[in-house]
Each structure stands twice: as structure tokens, then as C-alpha cells.
Fold this protein.
Amino acid sequence: MGKLIIPNNIKGKIISTLRSIEEDLPIALKRLARFILSSPDEVMVKNVTEIASAAGVGEATVIRLAKVLNYPGFKEFQLELIKEIAGKSRNQEQILDSNIVDGDSHEVIAKKLKLAISRSLSENIMNLDEKVLYPVADAIFKARKVFIIGVGNSCLSALFFKNKLCRIGIDAYAEAMSHFMYTSLAMLGPGDVVIALSQKGGSYETLKAFSIGKSTGALAVAITNNPVGKITEMADYVIFNGNEEGALQGDSAATMTAQIHICELLYTMVVSFNRTKATKTKQLTLQALSRDFAKLR
């Protein structure tokens, strides 16, 4: 097993951490991680011996995984898992599995998609940290420039956030093409903010762009679901967004909704710092749109 960099506190993020490191674990630990991800309810009530037997691993492997995740022992790991699952289970619908399978009716699919989105938003709220949110929102409010990085579907979330900030007078940018992204980021400097949206935090284009922005002295902010991704190591601040998608639902609506929810939260906080200015600026943009529309009639 290569060196895994696990944050000292993954409270509320055990499941997302296991998802992120699963493929990098040795065989026995990987088997145990997959068992925990597929049957967390069993792990919450069984002892070490029972879990080891059900997962097909040794008892030492169960204890070892707890220590890999920086818990003193299995009991501490189990207690935090219980808290995490209990938090995600509140107000849960009768459909418990959001993974879409063959044979699901259109109504069941619709309900599972709704549940996936709801769970992602709930995970967002569980992960909120005011010690991160307020400094980031304040930096955006005071920034000379804000550049938002997003590749693939995350680009759509980046463009959404850029548009929201521009409408209240923040000099914000986002580029869909990596060539323009890299050259624009090189023009940032101290007092600017670079924000990277990346679900797994490992795509080459995102990491390169984020590295260029950070190297200029700009404040580096990551919005991701991966507590152990390379992007979290690079960031000055990390905001964790939720994720609830099945094996065939990569870049799902639930993922994008979770990202946009975080962006909308930061936008609203920035507005609250000077509501009068934000309202005035937004009125100017609305008037510009109205004038254009009037010319077409």
C-alpha cells in the first residue's frame, strides 16, 4: 500500500473517505472497505469478530483499517460511523437505496433520483464548517479577481458560480477551455482567489490549473467530495460537498446539485456582507437585460 494521506479528522466523512481510498488499499483492506460501503448498517451493530467473518478478512484487518483512518481503535471508528449514518438517515424516504437498477419503473427511478439529490444536500449541510466558509466568503468579497476552475460537468457549476458573482459586481472568471484557463490563471496574484470544483479532486487539467493559480499567491479554495485527493493537499481551504451516485451515474444531477448548493451558499454569504451594493449591482444587470429585450420587440 502506497502512502495514504488521511486527515486527522474525517468526522462525518468516513463513507466518502472509504470511497476515495478503496482502490489504493491492499487486498484485505479493500475487501473490508467494500463490505463497509455495501453494508454499513451491519458494521454499526456487529463486533470485530463478526465483521471480520462477514467481510472475509482477519480481525487484525478490521482494527488496522480503523487505525489507517486515524482512529485509536475499532470502537472509536464504529461510534463515528454510527453518528454519520444516523445523521444521513434522518427524514429518509422509504426507498433506502438510490442506486438505479434494471427493472426499476419510471416512478421508482424518479424517486431514487430525488433521494440521491436529497442525500447529497444533507451531506453538504453535515460537512459545513464556519471556520472555512466565512474566511472564503470574505476573501471572495474583497478579491481583486476570482477565478473558478471546473472541468467536465464541474465546468457547468463553475460557470454558474461565475455568473452569480458577476451579477453582484465581483470580477469573476471561468473558462471551459484548458488553454485559456491556464493563461488566465497565470495573471492572478496576491489578493485574488482561485476556486477549484472537482468531485474526486484528481483530474490532470484541474490540478494543473489549480497549481498555476496557487503559485501566483492567490488564495486557493477546493470544493470537493474527496478528503484524500491531491487537490485537498494543495488547497488553503477545503469545502466538502456531498455525493450520492450509483456506479452508472458519474457526474450525476446529485453531484452537480451538491456543488451548486455550495456555490449558492457562498454567493449568499458574499451578498450579506454588503446587501445594498449587491442589490444595486444586480439591478444594473437586470436593466441591461431588459434594454436588450426591449430592442428585440
In short: The chain has 14 helices and five strands. The radius of gyration is 21 Å. Strands lie at 146-150, 172-173, 193-197, 219-224, 237-240. The first helix runs from residue 14 to 21.
